[in-house]
Structure formats: C-alpha cells, structure tokens
Amino acid sequence: MAMEAWLMDDSNEDPRLPHRRDPNESVSLDQLAELGVLYWKLNPTIYENDEQLTNIREARGYNYMDMLDLCPEKIENYEEKLKNFYTEHIHQDEEIRYCLEGSGYFDVRDKADRWIRILIKAGDLIILPAGIYHRFTLDPSNYVKLMRLFKGEPIWTAYNRPQEENPARKEYMKVLNGKFGVPLAAH
C-alpha cells in the first residue's frame, strides 16, 4: 500500500495525532511530486541486500547512511528532540529517510502554505527537496527506526522559518514555480 497524505486541520492538539480535516482531504503522490517530494515503497526486511534501494542510492549519489531509533528509551532528552524536529525548518540538502520500523509524520508546506501531513510506515522511503519547509513528529506509538541517507558527509543543520533569503529556499521556489518535472516512475 502506498504512503498516505492529507491536508492538516488547524488544531493545536498533540502533534502526534493525525490532524485530519473533516471531511478528510487526501493528497496524492502526484501532488507531492509537484512539490518535489519523492516516494518509494520498499521491503524493509531486506534493506541490507535490497537491489532497489542500492539502485536508488547509486542513481541519486547517496553514499552515506546511518540509523536512528527514535523513542523515549533510546534518545536522551527525547521530548526536547521531538520538539526540535517539529519546529518548521528547511535544509540546504535533500532530506532522505527510509522507515524500517514504526511510524511517524512528515509535514510539508504546499504552494498555498498549508500543511500536508505524510504518514510514513515501515517500507516507506521519502525524499524532501532542499529548501522545502517541513517538520517531523512521531505518531502516538512513539517509535520509529529510520535509515538516513546523505550525499557526502552528513549535515543536519536546520534553518528555522523564515528562510526566504536562504539560497536553498530561493532555488526551491524557482524550481517549484517552474515545476519539478519529476518522472512519476519514482513512485
């Protein structure tokens, strides 16, 4: 089953809740691709020898990988870290995450500056383009194991909003306004 995404409601309740509008307003993979968000469904039980994952990594130049177990038992200052991840920000580079276990939410801004919530579960590989406003939180399960991929040395610097003068944001807006032209075969 493909990843699920929807427009978020305006509630200030616990960010770990789904925050669906009533009625729900789904967002398709095609709509996410128009924002530069890419998605693949892989088999997380074979990630160490997955040919499809290897092909993605080689094609996109992801030569660094590490793992992150995000849960209260394994992360020092867990609530503070989660709060930092949930602060709206951009990165200078793509953010690539492959969910191996558990689940969580990536939120991205659409062209109208509304939040789109993306549920990731085991097997979901998601790529957020450099310069897109986004944030991350867990769902009520409070657990996710993620593979993080990078081109070259990992850089985790987050630039909190506003970042309209940031070169990565400027480039993202330029490409967004000219459409990404991403082939849908990425799905």
Give a quick precis of the structure.
The chain has 187 residues and is of the alpha+beta class. Helices cover 19% and strands 31% of the residues.
Task: Give the integer mean of the pLDDT values.
Answer: 93
The tally of domains stands at 1
Order of helices and strands: EHEHEHEEEEEEEH
How many strands? 10
Structure report:
- With 187 residues, this protein is an alpha+beta fold.
- The chain has one domain: Sandwich (Jelly Rolls), CATH 2.60.120.
- It has 4 helices and 10 strands.
- The chain has helices spanning 29-34, 51-60, 78-85, 167-177; strands at 4-7, 38-41, 64-70, 89-90, 95-109, 115-121, 124-128, 134-138, 144-150, 159-160.
- One of its GO terms (biological process) is L-methionine salvage from methylthioadenosine.
- Fe(2+) binds at residues 89, 91, 95, 134.
